Amino acid sequence: MTTFVLDTGALIALEHGDRHLWARLYTADRPSDVQVPTGAIAQAWRGGRRQAPLARALKLSEEVPLDGQIAREAGTLCGQTGTNDVIDASVAVTAAQAAHQQDVGVVTSDRGDIAPLLAALGASVRIVDV
User: Fold this and answer.
1) Domains parsed from the chain with CATH numbers
2) CA distances (Å), 98 to each of 53, 95, 101, in order?
3) Fewer CB within 10 Å, N or C, the chain?
4) CA distances from 69 to 92, 94, 95, 125 (A)
5) Which helix (H) or strand (E) holds 41?
């Protein structure tokens, strides 16, 4: 089974009812098969009733905390690649860490931002566009 790491764009797509992405979520064997870095949640979460679909999606996934280790790795990655989006970098770091143990795909609306980060990490991670 492939583990999917969702970025902010993927969370917004779920909130807007992307059927293909919801199907992926519902066919996951366990919550850890769909990982969501908490920084991406912060970018997408605005509260209120309109986010009920996002809240439901998060219950079906594993939230990966932006802890000190991931924060430092994401910051270093931003420095190496000349980017400044630490949340995208944390998505890439989360995916690269998971790729050491299983097949991983990053679900994103920003292939152009995520791909260079994954390449800099030397991560064997598939990119899935939403």
Assistant:
1) 3-129 (3.40.50.1010)
2) 26, 5, 6
3) N
4) 13, 11, 14, 20
5) helix 38-44
